[in-house]
């Protein structure tokens, strides 16, 4: 596996692959790899001739009081894991490579970015995501890009960018990968001490509880959410948000008659964690 730092280098490698009529897959990441990231790399490896993994802790998607400085970084470990999973190129640019002096463009997606994490963290978060992902698509030019469903809102935002800007890339969302006790894998889980780690399992249990009520036939949104709120309250967790939204538009739903995203965010100990389940009135959870 090659580690490259510049746009010129990664473009040259992709051009060489294209001359050989090879397909290109991109796995955009901020590093601190866990099994969720590795599952994306494996999917990319199965489907593409050339796998590019980007490793870039994107400063523009962090707020002023968020964890940019503390975000876990271990490039040597990440590079070894990416190579083990079949990555061909690790694109690990400096911030100045992506955002040189004078950079003045931001991509903003209306609507989708104004709820859930957009309301909780501010729309600047998804502006940063949309901008850096669009840059990566322009730099690498992948056939397919791979994202984790844990960041369900991010997936919808990226898909909207691709659709609205007519970008020639397919977005593949891969299933959430969980620990044995149900906690969604996240790079921020390293912030959890033993007590908060145990407490954090309530997020998935809350979603499971709500999903069980739904699967038993309940369609009223308030009743479904109440089941989740009870589990969180018992664990001493006050969520940033716990909401039911249309799974495609993220419009608020009061009754689940189609596909709905049941999404939660909460601060547990030193970590802000997110999780979600999709409820489908036609297909089950």
UniProtKB/TrEMBL annotation:
Binding site for beta-alanine: 61
GO biological process, one term: pantothenate biosynthetic process
Binding residue positions for ATP: 30-37, 148-151, 177, 185-188
InterPro entries listed in its UniProt record: Cyt_trans-like, Pantoate_ligase, Pantoate_ligase_C, Rossmann-like_a/b/a_fold
Major localization class: cytoplasm
The protein's assembly and partners: Homodimer.
Note: The reaction proceeds by a bi uni uni bi ping pong mechanism.
Protein name: Pantothenate synthetase
Taxonomic source organism: Microbacterium sp. A8/3-1
């Amino acid at each position: 596996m090659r580690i490259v730092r510049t746009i010129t280098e990664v473009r040259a490698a992709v051009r060489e692959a294209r001359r050989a009529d090879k397909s290109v897959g991109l796995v955009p990441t901020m590093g601190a790899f866990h099994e969720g990231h590795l599952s994306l790399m494996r999917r990319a490896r199965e489907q593409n001739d050339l796998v590019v993994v980007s490793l870039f802790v994107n400063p523009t998607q962090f707020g002023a009081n968020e964890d940019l400085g503390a975000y876990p970084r271990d490039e040597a470990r990440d590079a070894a894991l990416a190579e083990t999973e079949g990555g061909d190129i690790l694109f690990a640019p400096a911030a100045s490579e992506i955002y040189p002096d004078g950079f003045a463009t931001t991509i903003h997606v209306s609507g989708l970015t104004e709820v859930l994490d957009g309301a909780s963290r501010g729309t600047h978060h998804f502006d940063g995501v949309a901008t850096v992902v669009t840059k990566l698509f322009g730099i690498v030019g992948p056939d397919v890009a791979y994202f984790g469903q844990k960041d369900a809102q991010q997936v919808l935002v990226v898909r909207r960018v691709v659709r609205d800007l007519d970008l020639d890339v397919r977005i593949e969302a891969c299933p959430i990968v969980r620990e044995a006790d149900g906690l969604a894998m996240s790079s921020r889980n390293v912030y959890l001490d033993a007590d908060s780690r145990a407490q954090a399992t309530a997020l998935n249990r809350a979603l499971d509880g709500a999903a069980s009520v739904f699967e038993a036939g309940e369609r009223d949104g308030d009743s479904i959410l109440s089941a989740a709120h009870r589990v969180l309250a018992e664990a001493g967790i006050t969520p940033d948000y716990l909401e039911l939204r249309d799974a495609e538009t993220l419009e608020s739903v009061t009754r689940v008659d189609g596909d709905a995203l049941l999404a939660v965010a909460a601060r547990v100990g030193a970590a802000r964690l997110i999780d979600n389940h999709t409820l489908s009135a036609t297909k089950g959870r």
